[in-house]
Amino acid sequence: MTAPPYAGLWAGQDVVVLAAANSWDEARMADHQLAVALSAHAPVLYVDPAASVLARARVHGLRGARLDERVRQVADRVLRLSPEGLPAGSRPGVADLNRAVVAHQVRRTLRHTGGTVQAYLDANVLAPTMDRVPARTRVYWAQDDFVGMGPLVGVSPALLARAERRLSAAADAIIAANPTVAASLESPGRTLHLIPFGCDAGLFGGPLPDGDPAVRLPRPIAFLMGTLNDRLDVDCLRAVADEGVSLLLVGPRSPRFASAAFDALLALPNVQWTGPRAFEDLPAVVAHADVGIVPYTHSRFNEGSFPLKTLEYLAAGLPVVATDLPAIRWLASPHVEVADTAAEFGRAVALLARRPHDPEAVGHRRCFARAHSWEQRATEFARVLGL
Description:
The chain is of the alpha/beta class. The protein has two domains: 196 residues, Rossmann fold; 170 residues, Rossmann fold (3-Layer(aba) Sandwich), CATH 3.40.50. Helix content is 40%, strand content 16%. The chain is built from 16 helices and 14 strands. The strands form two sheets. An eight-stranded mixed sheet has the order 3-4-2-1-5-6-7-8, with helices on both faces. Strand 7, helix 6 and strand 8 form a beta-alpha-beta unit. Helix 1 crosses helix 16, helix 8 packs across helix 14 and helix 12 crosses helix 15. One of its GO terms (molecular function) is glycosyltransferase activity.
């Protein structure tokens, strides 16, 4: 049998396995960005959530379903494993089978690389595998309130709660990305660390491009990027538009997000939705903005989340208006205005959007964001992982 191209790639080296909650090919989420930053400390095997051959072929074509395409180098010192699994992976019995199938593929990949697992960082709550792969340190990465996420993704909250308890019990330590989630996971004898998400300060903090020709709105512009779904407070968005500020929305719309109020918002002349943009293309869109917004409701999931966009706005030099969430309070940034009612939100956005450009304030915001970069977060993770 022919050895794979990555055979012996990490021979004799300590390796981190990151069992991700999100596929590498999806929107560039925290898993993706941490893996790249963490690779400065150790080689990283990034493990996608399992997908069936048919599901992978539907998305990537027959080439993406081939066995020899399931392990690829996606960044310097980062290998990505796209494990095969059974369909309907959220069902309890299927999830247990997928755990065994994925763990086998992880062990096989690691044997080929020649590396030794120093740390197994598991964020895949439904099908965790860290208890099935030898590792010196096992860490559960609690990225969000996964139980609160259940209604958003159509998975039973009770099932997610059981899965999270099992994953927490198997871990040597837990890293939580949100203070509310950290508090919920506290337990006597349990080692718990609060390390929130970071930002790509290099991408957003460099000179901004000239702009995106598809943007047709007049200034001032309030900017929202990310998935458009039930997490959004549509009343806050409408209040911004009603203040006469242009509203630029960038990101995919969830198929589950059926909102007549949101449809009416999109019909306004000072509102534009561009659809999704590649992560690396976002600075060109940000170049049009005068203020970044985080208009989230107080759902359980939002209370337990850490909005990446907050720090990305600051890295681009933008002032920010956000609703009052635990993650926003934790940041305690003087550059983030908290406004919790629709009327307050609209007024705060209008005030900031119409302020004259202040290069000194832009510099302070970017400096704040650099202190929360993914490179900084990776250093904190490395200490917990024993690197």
